[in-house]
Amino acid sequence: MSFSDRRCSGALLLAAALALPACGGGGAEEAEAAPAEGTAPAGFARSVNVEVEPVQPRPFTEFVTVTGAVEANRDVVIEAEESGVVRRVYRDRGADVGAGQAIAKIDDRVLSAQAAQARAAAELAQTTYERRKALWENEKIGSEIAYLEARSNAEQSAANLATLEQRLARTIVRAPFAGSLEDRMVEVGTSVSPGTPVARIVDTSPVKVVGAVPERFAADVTTGRDVVIRFDAIGTEVTGTLTFVGAAVDQRSRTFPIEARVENPDGRFKPQMSANLRLPLREFEDAVVIAQEALIRDEDGFVVYVAVPDGDGWMAEVRPVQTGAADGGRIVIEAGLEAGDRVIVLGQHRVSDGDRVNVVDDSGAVRAARGEVEE
Q1: For residue 248, which of 139, 169, 207, 336 sits 20 to 30 Å off, Cα-Cα?
Q2: Looking at residues 325-339, what average pLDDT do you find?
Q3: Of 246, 239, 236, 231, which is closest to residue 262 (Cα–Cα)?
Q4: What CATH number does residue 99 fall under?
């Protein structure tokens, strides 16, 4: 027998000797009791570090955010009401104008002459009427028909004069309300006729912010409520008042229009500027509200994990929940939780029902650092 053969034979004999106790009466139980490789010792339970948030009933308002745009409070194009040539302009583009302030002047020489003629005719007709009236009523001189004709002539002459004076006044194009002269379409020498655009006046103090709300919120959106409006282009957020809620739903978009009033004393908000409107919907007095990140979706809906006392420690307990309104990373729980429950908001994805947990923070310090301070 070679040296290598003798070495192999010795190894087999040693292995057989070591295996002999396993054939005895107690060997099977000892082998069965030995822990498998890679498993925890008997009596060991894993503990997961978690952060919890105590459930406290609180007021909660549901909001919906929609996209809108700014519109001027009033925006009109002024048109000429008389024919003629523009002889003078009083304001340039961008100028502020008051209500009734002159913007342009149309040549009025022909109308002025006609008005002067009509004035003389009206004065004569009135004098004639007064004399015929005195003669007929006091002395019964003349005929009644002559008296009535004189009165009619006086009234017609007065009406003709009033018409010409109105036309003469319309040769001055005036601003119908206070605002900004956004555009002027005529210059000195421009020939205009009734209906010719002369100027555009825009009133932007205040402004209107208009938007469209999905029809499912129709029962919850009402006028008179405050609306938070954010203008991303200029990084500004203001509060406006909801002044209009449409009564009809658009057939194609399935939305209804809304309108909010926003003060604009310094002219920051310009027509057609985009905006986001945050509309209040339902209000809850004592709602069970938790962080949305605590929710875990399963095949039946949503669950959360709650830390419950377990001896001198804590244990994770799964709770199916029914969710409600949500806003700003918070959600109302309509069923499944009660006041005082400690909902796991950090580490919930690493626990299972019945796991021991180590509550490392339930003071809200971490949430406060993230800007989620409780009201």
Answers
A1: 207
A2: 87
A3: 239
A4: 2.40.50.100
Q: Pick from 284, 314, 347: which residue ends a domain?
A: 284
Q: Is 219 a member of any domain?
A: yes
Report the pLDDT value the prediction gives residue 190, as an integer from 0 to 100. Answer: 95
Percent of the chain with pLDDT over 90: 55
Residue 104: the pLDDT is: 96
**CA gap 315, 356 in Å, rounded:** 4
CA-to-CA distance for 270 and 275, rounded, in angstroms? 11
Residue 252 shares a structural domain with residue 179: no
User: DSSP letter string over 167-199?
Assistant: HHHTTEEE-SSSEEEEEE---TT-EE-TT-EEE
Report whether 324 contacts 16 (CB < 8 A): no
Report pLDDT for 46. 66
- C-alpha distances in angstroms, 21 versus 11, 14, 32, 315? 18, 13, 14, 43
- 35: DSSP letter: P
The C-alpha atoms of residue 322 and residue 13 are separated, in whole angstroms, by 68
Please check whether residues 295 and 235 belong to one and the same domain: no
pLDDT for position 298: 86
For the CA atoms of 337, 338, 344, 348, what is the dihedral angle to 10 degrees? -10
What does the pLDDT read at residue 178? Answer: 95
